Each structure stands twice: as C-alpha cells, then as structure tokens.
Amino acid sequence: xxxxxxxxxxxxxxxxxxxxxxxxxxxxxxxxxxxxxxxxxxxxxxxxxxxxxxxxxxxxxxx
Length: 63
Fold this sequence. Notes:
Blueprint: E1 18-21, E2 25-29, E3 40-45, H1 49-62
Antiparallel strand pairs: 1-2, 2-3
C-alpha cells in the first residue's frame, strides 16, 4: 500500500521498531525506510473472527 496515513507519533520510528496496527496485525519498520517514507513489514496477522461468523451464516442461509 502506498500513500497511507499513520499517527504523527510514528514519525520517530526506527528500523526494527514493532507496532500493532488495529485489526491488521503486528508490523516491523523496514531498514529501507527513509525520512520521507516509512516501510512496514507485517510480521503477524490477526485472526478475523467476523469473517468466520459471516461465512457460517451464509452457509446456513444457503442450506
């Protein structure tokens, strides 16, 4: 993704710093980051419980 916006507090992020982005997962600041643009690599994604519930509901409705 490009052109994303983050909280101003991340302007001081350094390579190797780790953050959790709500509903997405845990990310690490990439060494290729520069002052003009941060690069985050996802290290762990979060479970999507709602997707499982919606899938089950659709399955029940089609039966």
